[in-house]
């Protein structure tokens, strides 16, 4: 209380802002305590009573619940008041905020055992509790219902491919707009009911909530008569496809996806888990069910990182990648950091299903045994469980999905054994830092065992693409790995191939692209993706950073780069190239076509974006590649298409001495389908023609 006596510099301002004395907590029977009656589980909202948590002068004495409105956003409300942006006595105007549809009242709304984590009457407080609002009592909604159009990239792809029709009702146009009803729900806990769900004593629950929220809510301990708590956590959002009235109709089929938040995947499309692919698959199946006359529902819970939080999740990622990301250690990594595997506690999840009036689930778009068991235990049968299709599983998320299947997740396939889990390994950071990939076009990689590159290639995994097509007209691309017996074995189908500018490119999912499905449908999207992922090569160290530590060491040992002892003297450049040695070393390490041509293409995409220095670097590297062509042919004979990447910077040099210098280099022109001997004029004309094709 020293602050109120003026011992702190902000004491006077505090007394001006808050004129009433501080009330740290209250106790039953005090003169300042006269709560409005709250009968949880009463089916009549007037008899049940409103949820009151405001500490305003008009409501403080009548409070019947602990906490604050807004869930995890309550702190921002307090911050806005402290900053003077929000009046402390502000009251919302609820005019025109009524729900866009009135959900029919369900029996569960009056059953205190069926709904314990949300206020079943929280969507219509201006109607149900108008009397209290007219008396100046601060009653707030905890549920809001609206409608909107939704557009999701994967849904747009399905519409374009024809797998999802435009019906004009649910999917309203070919651009991918989908009608949806949205319901936002903030958590409201009936503490006796929550304790019963977890089979713990209410007193233990109250004490734990008090102690492990930093003592933020002392009334959890001092007011056992208050049975309702508004916790400072995220809520949920319901997305309904088709007429929302169908959701509670037992005569129509229902497709349901229960999804727990994963910001990294859901929004930013990380490929370390299946969250976004399963979410978008669930949305599409929900839409299809609505189009078939049923109802589709997706419920999105704010439980980031299995309710452990994003900081813990990223710590787990670090532990996995540094310690060996294998499926047998998947849960151990989390337990070592968080102490538990999962804190989502699905026991409270079915409340929203009861509130919606869902009596059965025809299609459950979830593999989780915890979600399944929680729903079934609440008396809601599930007739069909649909796992995520294999082709939607990102390569780096096999660790997650196989570990979960082994731990009890539903699958229609075979269950992997404990021993097999040890061999399911995610992408390590080495593949992030090193481009250890080579690209072979219409070549049998086994021929390389007799080549000078066998000792190099045996250390890396490789992609091999041929021109054959499968039934879906996709390129038949295989992932090959060199085993200890010197055999090339097919590992898994790689669906990361697409065509661009009449050339075949392999997009390495471990490095270059995490949106393969969108890019296959919209190749122009690759330009944006590339701009995000490439390394600018205007300085030598950026180039070296792109190719990894192994090449870095090799370049230093061969004198291919120069390290300046005083970088500031050399305009901040610590490293510089020496002639075309760097190109030759790159050939020896990673097969030039996979490494350098990829870099050249990235550089070309930046020509119109960045300054001239990067273009000069691009041109210089092109000349180095051309100078090494005789040597390059030993590894892989470039086709005429490959030269297009290198022809553009030569276009401007067609009449220059640089072209003469390049022509004088002894190159086997038959590599490009040209005559073995050709004049400088013919060479010039060929460059101009090729440049015109590309430009």
TrEMBL record:
Keywords: GTP-binding, Hydrolase, Nucleotide-binding. Signal peptide: none annotated. InterPro entries: GTP_CH_N (IPR022163), GTP_cyclohydro_II (IPR032677), RibA (IPR000926), RibA-like_sf (IPR036144). CDD domains: GTP_cyclohydro2. Residues 21-211 form the GTP cyclohydrolase N-terminal domain. One of its GO terms (biological process) is riboflavin biosynthetic process. One of its GO terms (molecular function) is GTP cyclohydrolase II activity. Pfam families: GTP_CH_N (PF12471), GTP_cyclohydro2 (PF00925). It comes from the Eukaryota. Residues 253-387 form the GTP cyclohydrolase II domain. Belongs to the GTP cyclohydrolase II family. This is GTP cyclohydrolase II. It comes from Clonostachys rhizophaga. The lineage of its organism: Eukaryota, Fungi, Dikarya, Ascomycota, Pezizomycotina.
């Amino acid at each position: 209380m020293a602050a109120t006596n003026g011992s702190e510099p902000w004491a006077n301002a505090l007394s001006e802002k808050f004129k009433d004395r501080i009330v740290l907590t209250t106790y039953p029977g005090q003169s300042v305590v006269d709560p409005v009656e709250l009968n949880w589980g009463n089916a009549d909202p007037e008899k049940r009573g409103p949820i009151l948590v405001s500490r305003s002068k008009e409501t403080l004495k009548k409070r019947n619940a602990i906490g604050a409105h807004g869930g995890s956003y309550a702190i921002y409300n307090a911050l806005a008041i402290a900053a003077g942006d929000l009046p402390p006595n502000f009251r919302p105007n609820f005019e025109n905020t009524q729900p866009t549809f009135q959900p029919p009242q369900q029996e569960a709304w009056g059953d205190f055992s069926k709904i314990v984590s949300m206020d079943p009457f929280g969507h219509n407080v201006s109607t149900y509790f108008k009397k209290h609002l007219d008396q100046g009592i601060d009653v707030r909604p905890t549920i809001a219902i609206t409608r909107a159009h939704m557009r999701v990239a994967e849904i747009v792809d399905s519409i374009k491919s024809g797998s999802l029709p435009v019906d004009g009702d649910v999917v309203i146009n070919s651009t991918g707009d989908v009608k949806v009803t949205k319901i936002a729900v903030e958590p409201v806990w009936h503490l006796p009911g929550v304790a019963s769900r977890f089979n713990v004593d209410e007193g233990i629950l109250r004490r734990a909530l008090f102690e492990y929220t930093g003592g933020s809510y002392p009334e959890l301990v001092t007011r056992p008569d208050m049975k309702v708590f508004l916790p400072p956590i995220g809520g949920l959002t319901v997305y309904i496809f088709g007429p929302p009235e169908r959701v509670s109709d037992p005569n129509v089929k229902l497709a349901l996806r229960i999804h727990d938040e994963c910001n990294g995947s859901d929004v930013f499309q990380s490929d370390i888990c299946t969250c976004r692919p399963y979410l978008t698959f669930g949305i599409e199946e929900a839409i299809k069910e609505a189009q078939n006359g049923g109802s589709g529902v997706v419920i999105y819970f704010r439980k980031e990182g299995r309710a452990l939080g994003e900081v813990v999740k990223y710590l787990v990622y670090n532990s996995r990648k540094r310690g060996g990301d294998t499926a047998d250690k998947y849960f151990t990594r989390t337990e070592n950091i968080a102490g538990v595997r999962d804190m989502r506690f699905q026991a409270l999840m079915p409340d929203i299903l009861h509130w919606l009036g869902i009596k059965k689930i025809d299609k459950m778009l979830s593999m989780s045994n915890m979600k399944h068991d929680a729903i079934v235990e609440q008396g809601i049968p599930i007739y069909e469980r649909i796992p995520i299709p294999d082709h939607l599983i990102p390569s780096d998320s096999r660790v997650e999905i196989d570990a979960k299947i082994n731990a009890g997740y539903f699958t229609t396939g075979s269950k992997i054994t404990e021993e097999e889990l040890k061999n399911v390994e995610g992408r390590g950071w080495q593949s992030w830092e090193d481009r250890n990939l080579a690209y072979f076009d219409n070549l049998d990689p086994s021929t390389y065992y007799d080549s000078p590159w066998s000792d190099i290639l045996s250390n890396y995994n490789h992609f091999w693409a041929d021109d054959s097509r499968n039934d879906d007209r996709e390129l038949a691309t295989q992932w090959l790995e060199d085993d200890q017996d010197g055999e090339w074995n097919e590992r898994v189908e790689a669906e990361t191939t697409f065509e661009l500018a009449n050339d075949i490119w392999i997009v390495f999912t471990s490095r270059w692209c995490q949106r393969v499905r969108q890019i296959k449908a919209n190749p122009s999207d690759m330009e944006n993706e590339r701009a995000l992922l490439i390394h600018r090569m205007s300085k030598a160290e950026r180039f070296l950073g792109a190719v990894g530590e192994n090449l870095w060491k090799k370049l230093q040992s061969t004198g291919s780069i120069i390290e300046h002892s005083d970088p500031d003297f050399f305009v901040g450049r610590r490293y510089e190239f020496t002639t075309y040695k760097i190109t030759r070393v790159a050939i020896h390490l990673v097969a030039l076509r996979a490494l350098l041509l990829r870099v050249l293409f990235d550089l070309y995409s930046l020509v119109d974006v960045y300054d001239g220095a990067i273009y000069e670097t691009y041109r210089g590297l092109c000349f180095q590649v051309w100078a090494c062509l005789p040597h390059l042919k030993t590894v892989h004979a470039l086709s005429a298409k490959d030269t297009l990447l290198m022809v553009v910077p030569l276009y401007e040099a067609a009449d220059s001495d640089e072209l003469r210098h390049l022509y004088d280099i002894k190159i086997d022109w038959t590599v490009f389908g040209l005559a073995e001997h050709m004049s400088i004029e013919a060479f010039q004309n060929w460059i101009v023609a090729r440049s015109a094709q590309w430009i």
